[in-house]
């Protein structure tokens, strides 16, 4: 149509004036239409061609070499043994009694302290063997 204004598509002319085939061929529209047609065909092949699926690159996971587990014999601390606890209880009791009687009899206090030290030394010497 010759009298249709593309800037105002809502305003239609009262009478349509059509362009003849000769005027269309002379206007150079065919070259533009051929380019548009080839672009549409290229786009069609692009759309219809499946996308290549890339395989995810898997990196080998290095596992650290596990150190051989050595089962060392479990040693219980001396402070956790019943003998140790009994010895400490006895030493605390004797020390408390010696402190109460230290004012009256200092010599007895010194003997009690020496006895406590001897018992502790014997306990640790016995546990070392």
From TrEMBL:
Source organism of the structure: Candidatus Scatenecus faecavium
Alphabetically sorted, this entry's keywords are:
Coiled coil
Region annotation Disordered: where it falls in the sequence = 51-79
**Coiled-coil regions listed in the entry:** 99-126
Protein's name according to its UniProt entry:
Uncharacterized protein
